[in-house]
Amino acid sequence: MWGITLALVLTLVGGQESSYAPDFTGSKTFVYNYEGLILSGLPEKGCNRAGVKLKCKVEINSAGPKLCLLRIHTLDVEEYNGVWPKDPFTRSFRLTQVLGAQLVKPIRFEYSSGQVGNIYTADDVSSLVVNIVRGILNILQLSIKRTQNTYSFQEFGIAGICHTNYIIQQDKKENQILVTKSKDLHSCQDKVQRITGNAYAQTCSGCDQRNKTDRAFSTHNYKIKSTRSGTVILQADSQEVHQFTPFNEMEAAVVMEARQKLVLAEVRKDTTSTPEPELQNRGSLRYHFASELLQTPIQLLKTKNAGNQIIKTLQQLAENMQDSAVKDAPAKYLELVQLLRAATYENIDSVWKQFSSRSEYRRWILDAIPAIGSPMALKFLRHYIKRAELTDFEAAQAVLVGLHLIKADHDAVAEAAMLLKETNARHTPTLYKVTVLTYGSLLQRHCISTDVCTEAALQPLHDLALDALSSGNEGDMTLSLKAIGNAGQPASIKLIQKFLPGFLHRASQLPHSIQVDAVMALRNIAKNDRRRVQDILMQLFANHKVNAEVRMVASVVLVETKPTPALLINMANVALTDTNLQVASFTYSQLKALSTSQAPDLYTVAAASNIALKLLNPKLGWLSYRYSKNLRYDTFTDAIMSGFAANLFAINNAATTLPTAFISNIKAYFLGATTDLFEVGLRAEGLQEVIMKKHLDNWSSRAQGGNEIRDILKKLSEWKALPTNEPLASAYLKLFGQEIFFAKINKDSIKRAVEVFYKPEEQLPKLGDLLRSLQQSLDGHWTKPLLSTEVRHIVPTCVGLPIEKSMYYVSVTSAAINARVQILPSPSSDFSLSQLFDSKIKLHSKMSLSFAKDLIMFIGLNTHLIQAGMELQAKVHAMFPVNIAAAVNIKEKNFKIDIVPCHQESEIMSVRVKAYSVTRNVEDLAAAKIIPVVPSESIPNLWKEGFNSGEKLTGDHSENTGSFPSEFLSKEKSYSAEEPLHYPAPAADSRCAKARQFGFEVCLEKTSANAGFIKNSLLYFLIGGHTTEVSFKPVRTESTIEKIQIEFQAGPRAAEKMVHLVDLDEIEDENDEMETPLHHHALGKLKRILSGQNETWSKLPFTWWSGMCDSEGGGETISAVQEYGGLAVDIA
Hints:
Helices cover 31% and strands 33% of the residues. By secondary structure, the protein is α+β, with helices and mostly antiparallel strands. Strands 10, 22, 23, 24, 25, 26, 27, 28, 31, 32, 33, 34, 37 and 38 form a 14-stranded antiparallel β-sheet that branches. Strands 1, 2, 3, 4, 5, 6, 7, 8, 9, 12, 13, 14 and 15 form a 13-stranded antiparallel β-sheet that branches. The model is unreliable at 1-18, 694-706, 938-980, 1060-1075 and 1089-1118 (pLDDT under 50). InterPro entries: Lipid_transp_b-sht_shell (IPR015819), Lipovitellin_superhlx_dom (IPR011030), Vitellinogen_b-sht_N (IPR015816), Vitellinogen_open_b-sht (IPR015255), Vitellinogen_open_b-sht_sub1 (IPR015817), Vitellogenin/Apolipophorin (IPR050733), Vitellogenin_N (IPR001747).
């Protein structure tokens, strides 16, 4: 009986709670006016913003139990790009036709108790249109509880399952129910978003506590009326605000706003019955990503014939980049990449077969294909590597870039595994090494995006490590451990322990360099399983039997894991009783460096380091630099929420005074994340042992005369006592925490290098071809484009359209050279490089090094049909032309350079930064509108207007002045509504530094106009337009300067070989014949210098001499000679 009563009560309560839920059952059709708006830009009125508005009629009626039918008609799509809210919207007829043709098709959706279920549409309706429908239906998603006036819970919606707060009020006078719900879009259990390109960055926990780079909230207001026939929504308003700033959010931010309005227009009886078409289930209310993942936000292309468009773009790049990198080359290269992404494999293969024989086109294709970022690119590379149509260098650089840029999904991993097998079978060590390392990097990004990283993906690396361990192959041990370290997966911990002393008996017999590599492999694993890695490292550090270098490297990695205060105290206790002063000194310097750290993520570690230092003897800090040290410098500025940390680790052993290893790295803090920018490591323990055994004794005494380099090479070739496989030195390079390169030098490496100098030309055909081409005249051109950064963060809005924050960094570097070399005496048939030391070499060359770099940030709406947002462009262009002639005589230790001076004005470098408001429409690309965010003209000031919640969003200009809430408006300046807002004129500055002696001047010109007058913040000072140009300009001189000559003379009595003594009396006699006062002054001063009358000059440790000579063109030159300990320099 009790159970029946409880069930009855729950039924009644449930009925009461659902009575406020909208009900579309019955034979009525509810007709609504719908408007959706998205805007992006600065929050202040009077600045340019960009956006899109959708207007339509929405009809909803019943289609069965818990089913409703949705019809959309009278669609109108409008674009906005102008001064907000002054300028009107512009109707887009073509977009209206394209979207309207799909939206008019009937849509069915499940609806019960205010909850939207599955959505059904025709199969040919695009995902973009379905998402717009989801935005409309998201308004109907209501969870109303009649028994509570306010409550919070996790509600399902278009953006995922997010924290939502409800407030229920009754308006008895109007007989209405007022519902307000607010969502924190950053407090979601299942947030809908896509983040690409930042897999190598880690969240900065301390930064996140101080500042949020982006926030997002939404508010929904409903007017609901309950009648006898059911509950109906009279009006619904939604407003969603996303704000973003790369700096401190309290200063300023860019705002992206989405609004919706749904107003009941009429209710009519549904008297007609239409046959229900065949509809497909398109999923729930949750947003589905589609074409926005393929569409770059900074370009909009309409792809009709991808193959022809690729060829046309290739021709433009190859023909326009013959001499230098033009300013729009990065944009054109990005266009090529986007076309390749839209093409099929057959298109790309056809283009390659057509142009692979032409070097210019071939380079552009091979540099663009890796940037596609899909398995198709790897398939292409694997196919042509297998057919041996790519050189080792071409294949290595393409694989390196391709595997780092590819989207790390299951298909990419499978294709990369096949590529790994192919490169191993080709027996090319460099290509195989690059492939193994980048395969590990691919696995790290793949395992971040999936819940479970399969053992099968890691198996190739594990097999390589186990095979190398069993066979004793040190090269493969190093390679596999570095690749496993790149992957950074906890599943590899047990394997790594087999290379660590104290965990496996055989591991202590491995070379110390292998043990160090195993410790370093734990660094990335610690990001996923910090506790286990800390336990392993602490065991190594505390084990006094382990090699000191391995213990110190373990200490470096242990501190990077941000240990707890207790663990840091234990490290100090170990160092306190350690008999190895190298380890004790290193630990003390580490803790001391950390104790003063300003890094936000190391606040707890810094505090604990201060305590740990008190346990150690301060005398450890007084040890000299022959003991191992850690030097650290870091800084962090709250105003810009950015900083960096630089570390230098000098690791030594007791046998030598010079460090045996160096590790240097730089970490950056920006946008709430930390990134290991780069790390360089050098290790030279084997080389030090050679030096200690006096393999290089008395080199200086045996290398007298002019053949030092040849004698050194000869000595290197006689190192017969060195072990063949033992490395003498090694180095590695890491970018963004991933090792991309390492090399080891051993006896064989030195032997091969020496042989290059002594082998005759016929045994080195490539060297012979190079020498012959240089003597005849070498024309070369090299171009390297690179899409090095593509970071995107895409989220849906309540309107159903996506907005994103993205950053692109594209660079194109070009070098052109025309060179001719003359070698005297002429090389014979058995000529070798060593004979160059006895030859005279003359070089004539014209070179040009240029680059164009684009850094672009986009914030706003991005789809394959339309783009609207704010774009910040930073463009750098530089060009350095050089026209020189050089003469080298190694035997006489003489080097002379003739430089042609500047004869016409030329721009050397330009930097342009500008913020634009952008709208692009794929149906009318010619009408794309790009205007500055900060207008140049004066406009009426509307800053003090408040937000009118009842404001209508219509296309008419007088009704089209929707605004942001007052809390988003600037409080720093106030103007009357009638007073015009005058934008300040751009600031300009121009300065020149003249070098009359060389006939040119260097000029710096700057102009700047920004939004700093609106708000005093770094973001607003950045937004606007900034230009900096550096140029060379010729300067008129008394006589023509035909060339600038610089001569170096080394060896004993170097100055005497260059300076011809001048009779001061003769100069005085000739002084009267000089034609200009400048000559009188110069020679008079020169006479005082040479005669020692000027005390200042006479005390300098070098000799000055000056004389006059006739140049080939009849001009005059003044020479100056400086002597520094056996090196004389002459500048004429």
